[in-house]
Amino acid sequence: MLKIGLTGNIGSGKTVISTIFSILGVPVYHADEESKKFLADPLVKNEILKHFGYGILSNDQSINRRSLASIVFSDAIALKQLNSILHPKVKQDFITWALQHCGQHYVIQEAAIIFESGLSGEYDFIIHVSCPKEIAIDRVIKRDKIDGHSVLRRMQFQLNNDEKARLSDFVISNDGCEMVIPQVLSIHQQLLEICAKRNDDIAPGTAYT
């Protein structure tokens, strides 16, 4: 089974692309969404409060993600600290999740900062969803109901499109002009062929660890 990383900057449309893969029957793990559940873990919550203070709590004493985001997307050190708390949890959760889908040809982990977090070596192949900056900003403004300045603050912690494309094995253009479904289908077929070839290369009776 191959482990595929699906990445792209904020507003690139990773979720749309991952949905297409899901329709094709490919299991997809949404790292950014899954990381949110750890905010309710008492040990994780206490660690976050120790670093960011009780001012990030909502009235119900849960962590207010918007308040936390306003801190970490204004301070690179704070963002690194938060990632150091959450990423190990998400990494182990993904490993456990992937084992539950070991009968699949490949699985996908959707994550925004694969390269920025030094996690690229965890995958067999990486797909980057590329989108012009102006389009991405407009998408996030409409989706999250925030201003352009806030979007740009988040973008400053991510590598640019060209750099991510250079580092990736596959690139999907999601600029609103080029159709994305044929691009996904092409990559899907290539990955299935790679899986088939790898299976053919494994001789019967050979033990692998």
Topology record:
Elements: E1 2-7, H1 14-23, E2 28-30, H2 31-37, H3 42-52, H4 65-72, H5 76-99, E3 106-110, E4 125-130, H6 133-144, H7 148-155, H8 161-167, E5 170-173, H9 180-201
How would you briefly describe this protein structure?
The protein has 209 residues and is α/β, with parallel strands linked by helices.
- Outline the biggest β-sheet: 5 strands, parallel
The dominant shape is: globular
Element order: H for helix, E for strand: EHEHHHHEEHHHEH
Q: What is the CATH level 1 assignment?
A: Alpha Beta
Helical content stands at: 40-55%
CA-CA gap between termini: 14 Å
CATH superfamily heading: P-loop containing nucleotide triphosphate hydrolases
Structural class: alpha/beta
Number of domains: 1
- Give the total of beta strands: 5
What gyration radius follows from the Cα positions, in whole Å?
Answer: 19 Å
What ranges have pLDDT less than 50 throughout 5 or more consecutive residues? 205-209
Helix count? Answer: 9
Arrangement of strands in the largest sheet: 2-3-1-4-5
Q: Provide mean pLDDT, rounded.
A: 91
Strand content: 5-15%
Give the CATH topology. Rossmann fold
CATH architectural grouping = 3-Layer(aba) Sandwich
Note down, in words, how this protein is organized:
This protein is α/β, with parallel strands linked by helices and 209 residues long. The protein has a single domain (2-38, 87-197), classed as Rossmann fold (3-Layer(aba) Sandwich), CATH 3.40.50. The protein is 52% helix and 11% strand. It has 9 helices and 5 strands. A 5-stranded parallel β-sheet has the order 2-3-1-4-5, sandwiched between helices. Helix 3 packs antiparallel against helix 5. It is globular, with a radius of gyration of 19 Å.
